[in-house]
Amino acid sequence: MKKPVALKVLDIVTIIALLGATAMVFFYAPIERVMGAVQKVFYFHVAAGWVGMLSFLFAAVAGIIFLVKKKKIWDLVGVAAVEIGIIFIFINIVTGSIWARPIWNTWWTWDPRLTTATIMELVYIAYLMLRQGIDDPERRARFGAVYAIVGFLSVPLTFFSIRIFRTIHPVVIAGSDPTAVGTFDMTPAMFQTLMVGIVVFSILFVDLVWHRIRLGQLANQVEEMKFNLQD
Amino acid sequence: MNTTLNTVNYFIAGYVVIFGSIIGYVISLYVRWKNLKQEEEIITDSTDQN
After folding, report:
1. Distances in whole angstroms, Cα of residue A78 to Cα of each of A4, A131, A229
2. How many domains would you assign to chain A?
3. Which of A39, A44, A153, B29 has the smallest C-beta neighbourhood within 10 Å, fewest atoms?
């Protein structure tokens, strides 16, 4: 299985873009007056949350397409999206906790956003664990598709939790909850850095999904070869 | 009057987690790919011998 040229180009573009976005965070975005340097975690914290939720949306859409078309490739897309979503939501939760320590004076609190994000992460970790317990590939794929669709309910719940419930989690864009702690007004440079971060993480997501799908295809190929060898 | 908090350590910790997780995942993809390629080679060799 040869690596496509487009994927090689995407790898290079992703690395350059990620370095560029990091440089913007370090050297372009100003230091926030009250919170200091830790506020800069916000740019990739939000971008990771965005990519995590986008991944789970991808998995749900791939699940629907799999149930309609019954093509193996959509099962691979679903697993790839879930696996990558788990990594990015992990980054989102841990960086949020690191930011919270000096700003909220605690590593963790059972705030609606933190709680729903953790539940969402656990829902998708369970997806991977439960899949591994099913031997029949056909059943495994069907289960994965249905689970990804149902599990997606946790995503809007997490996204809107800071807008529905009273929370101390800041809503930086279009938010005005007086109970939020750590809110700040974004300068144009901060906003530009955030947008670049979101775009770059989206490119990184496409790159990683592509690699993970290829890995899944190779795994299926090896599985088939083993099966033929036994016959 | 607001004074800026010294939170550089938390900032560094945040970016260590971000890049550590991404690099760790890329390494895991590479290792799994290598292992599967090795398995594929072994199966191909044993098929050729039969």
Report:
1. 21, 12, 28
2. 1
3. A153
* ipTM of model: 0.91
Kindly state whether residue A17 falls inside one of the protein's structural domains.
no
Q: Domain of B31?
A: 11-43
A with B: how many residue pairs have Cβ under 8 Å apart? Answer: 92
Does A36 lie at the interface with B, CB-CB under 8 angstroms? yes
- Per-residue pLDDT of A22-49, as tens digits, reads 999 999 999 999 999 999 999 999 999 9
Q: Testing the interface with B: which of A10, A222, A226, A229 to mutate, by most B Cβ within 10 A?
A: A222
Does residue B3 form part of some domain?
no
SS (H, E, C) chain B: CCCCCCCHHHHHHHHHHHHHHHHHHHHHHHHHHHHHHHHHHHHHHHHHHC
Residue at B33 is within a domain: yes
In a domain? residue B6: no
